[in-house]
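Protocol step 4 of 5: obtain the predicted structure for the target chain.
Materials: sequence only (see below). No template structures provided, no constraints applied. The aim of this step is simply to have a reference model before the mutagenesis design in step 5. Sequence pasted as it appears in the construct record:
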Amino acid sequence: MNRQSWRGLTLALMLGASAGALASTAACAQAPAAAPASRPWLDPKLDADVRADLAVKAMTQDEKLTVIFGYFGADMGTKYKRIAEALPGSAGYIPGIERLGIPAQFQTDAGVGVATQGGEPKKRERTSLPAGIATTATWNPELAQAGGAMIGSEARDSGFNVMLAGGINLTREPRNGRNFEYGGEDPWLAGRMVGAQIKGIQSNAIVSTIKHYALNGQETGRFVLDAKIGEADARTSDLLAFQFAIEDSDPHSVMCSYNRVNGDYACENDFLLNKVLKQDWAYKGYVMSDWGATHSGAKAVNAGLDQESGAEAFDKQTFFRAPLKDALAKGEVTQARLDDMARRILRGLFASGVVEKPVKIATIDYAAHAKVTRADAEEGVVLLKNDKGLLPLVASAKKIAVIGGHADVGVLSGGGSSQVYPIGGRAVTGEGPASWPGPMIYFPSSPLKALKARLPGADIQFADGKDKAAAAKLAAGADVVLVFATQWNGESFDSPLTLENDQDALIDAVASANGKTVVVLETGGPVLMPWLSKVGGVVEAWYPGSEGGEAIARVLTGEVDASGRLPVTFPASLDQLPRPTLDGDPKKPDDLFAVDYTIEGAAVGYKWFDKKGHQPLFAFGHGLSYTTFAYENLKAEAKGDALTVSFDVKNTGKRTGKAVPQVYVSPKAGGWEAPQRLAAFKKVELAPGASTKVTLTVDPRLLATWNEKAHGWSVAAGDYTLSLGDSSRDTAAKADVAVAARSLPVGLMKP
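Step 4 output (structure tokens):
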């Protein structure tokens, strides 16, 4: 898609265009040349499966072995030197087959933008979206799709045709260091939001992955841990999130994870790759390994792995080279299976449009992209607490103290392979680890500067917060205090739910000096708040991306409504978690251990809290607005195979705002993993006094349980209650509906 077409697509996404209109826009952007008769697989008028079959028949054995083997794209000192063809500092490279017109695969991390890996001295300065958890907090799939389209276009214009995005692992462990990359704790919300982002990425005629498949719930011991879980529980939670997203977006590749699942590594797990993904879901794309996640040749291949990634740099052997050739010679791997591996990869290249539209370096419109990431960040900001209307900041607040978090220069981002290098360079240096998963990077988007620009009549003073007494003194003389608190999370480590560097004590001291204190959190997930009762307001801004400072200021000043909602539960204490003590020992990374997910099973996040009767610090779905909304006329109807719910939303306040009505469903007879499940949601913008009717359809699997004996989904006949409200714990409106018994197919169901 050319840049003009991408701009039109992004605008259409922002305006809520239909999926059909978006597909038409993307299709019109391509005009591939006719294929010569000698190479019929290059005919774009043919189906991608047909083209892949034709191409594989024309391939030599060496060519088939070429497309299934990936190189790392970054230097690793004396351990590994990238091959010249790979883009410097990139995630990976797979050679093309020039004879057949098959392009090379240029791979880039990750889900928030185009990253630069390793110690590459020349960094790619690119636009960064907010963290994945922040995008999910928008509860706005159209916005997620626009963001995906934006970073996908930057990937293409940077020379990449494969983007290692689509992180969707459910938040089973709130201390997981990579939660910031993912889609929260609910399979329906995560599936809708991450699927929308993948759809946006692939609208640029490039491949997106979905990852990390599956049950990659923590970073401690991620290379060795064994996730123990029953089939029904997995199908109803983590696997269901993948299923929803794959249905929505058709990602052309699935990346399998590091961990083991019920004894076998995920990248050589027959149940995950063959039985569920390729057989039950009839997935047509290819499975690539995570970097360093391949442990065998024949076993991995026969279990469903199609492509080994970063092999020479990270795997103990180059398993898809000599060991695979040996396995083929011995008959341990069939020729048909090798052909299938190559065919799946080529199908992804044909289906995506990569073959018809080769990537090339092109100019990037950073100004236009800044607006996309800012809109995403704004709608992801969650107003958790707002006593006495302390926010938005009003003209009467003449003296404002801004304290901590490097708010004078920038906003924090998460570390690891997803790290995007900021346009304009790092705002802060010298903090955090100097090497991977660092460096710790702040984007140069200052909340302090943005606030001053919007409140020119106010006296706004800044203190870095290192001196608690000085910070408290500054706070005591202010009308309003804004404390910016940070917690850096990243790949390869997990974090406690406490703020680092004694920031809890700083907040306590400041709030003790002035009760009109608002805490602005820049974190990758939930944190505990021992100071909560002392502060007047709490704002969760997550890692807000390249335009984070502007976005935060626009929300704090009321330039836009506070419209984010929590995609995860904030616990009140570690004792409320299924595993209060984190499994594994970071000091013994090679020691095998198991994580018992049978404790909560499919009752992840809010479902666990509902099941156990725990009172969370802040509930899943919670988020305040600067206006008020009323929900009326809730109705539920089961007609044929469809369950629909309708209701009216009215803005009863004095300013324009965005409501996020949430529908939860529960069977009156019980029998589920938890009392209720999220069944539907919709983000709605309304002017003061305006109202609208919302009608939503409930996916039938959200009414079902997995029947292992029948190998499918079963909906039990009976009465179900639909509850409508502002969060999982605020559902005052209810309607009952009788549902007939029904069996559902195991495979993918197109939306």
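Step 4 remarks: The two ends are 25 Å apart (CA to CA). Residues 335-352 form the longest helix (18 residues).
Proceed to step 5.
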